[in-house]
Amino acid sequence: MSQKSTEQVLMSATTRFSRILPAMLAGLAALFLATGAQAQTMWGGGSEWGGGRQTVSFSKKYAPGQIIVSFGDRRLYKISSRGRAVSYPIAIPKNEARWQGVTSVSMKRKNPAWRPTPTMLRKNPRLPSWVPGGHPMNPLGVRALYLGSSAYRIHGTDAPWTIGKAASSGCIRMYNEDVIDLYRRTRVGARVTVTWKRFKSGGYTSANAKKTYTYNNW
Cα–Cα distance between 42 and 47 in angstroms, integer? Predict the structure, then answer.
């Protein structure tokens, strides 16, 4: 093949590649976004811990307005009416930070600032001493519900991949979109029960991409 013919073939191939490159890049971007979205929803090893936010049947012993946090289920339940609750996936405390009890929402904050506790700083001296509210790397996310006089909170997160896992130092983490929803549904003074009891008593059935669970009547 002559030098001229080789140059023509190379130019033709380059032209064809330049035409399909935008479509290739668009396809890769779509695949990346889909994979990222799936990674945020398929937490906790699949369907064992449920799915995203759901409306579920729940024990009628709990009054509307109460919050039930089940570390065993890795779900938070906001009682909407007798026998009904909104269920949210959560990240729970690591083993050494386990706790349970009954408390109440003592305060609510939008875009709360974050300060590490002395224990956190001893474990990781490289942590910042303060992160302003609204910062994309604020560990409290976009909303926080403070629990009694303790240092524990129900809050959003800058690490959504931890939802469904044992990851926190005692607080209850939620997806930012979920904690916004819970925030507007919850008043200061609301009763909060934190327990390791599991409320799920069976599997789930899928209908129109929504999951329905059966719960024990603790």
Answer: 8
135 classed as catalytic: no
Q: What are phi and psi of 143, to 5 degrees?
A: -145, 150
Q: What are phi and psi of 97, to 5 degrees?
A: -110, 15
Per the CB < 8 A criterion, the answer to whether 102 and 206 are in contact is no
At 116 the three-state DSSP class reads: coil
Residue ranges in the chain whose pLDDT is less than 70: 1-50, 200-218
Choosing from 67, 171, 179, 194, which is the catalytic residue? 171
Quote the CA–CA distance of 111 and 113 in Å, as a whole number: 7
Other Cβ atoms within 10 Å of 130 Cβ, number: 10
| CB-based contact 111:142 (threshold 8 Å) | yes
- Give the model confidence (pLDDT) of 153-176 as tens digits: 999 999 999 999 999 999 999 999
Structure token pair of residue 156: 């959003």
Can you tell me which residue has the tokens 């001493």? 129
Residues in the chain: 218
Would you call 211 exposed, middle or buried from its count of C-beta atoms within 10 A (0-12, 13-18, 19+)? middle
**Catalytic choice (108, 143, 155, 200):** 155
Q: Report CA-CA distances (Å) from 62 to 89, 103, 217.
A: 19, 14, 10
Q: Could you confirm whether 97 is annotated as catalytic?
A: no
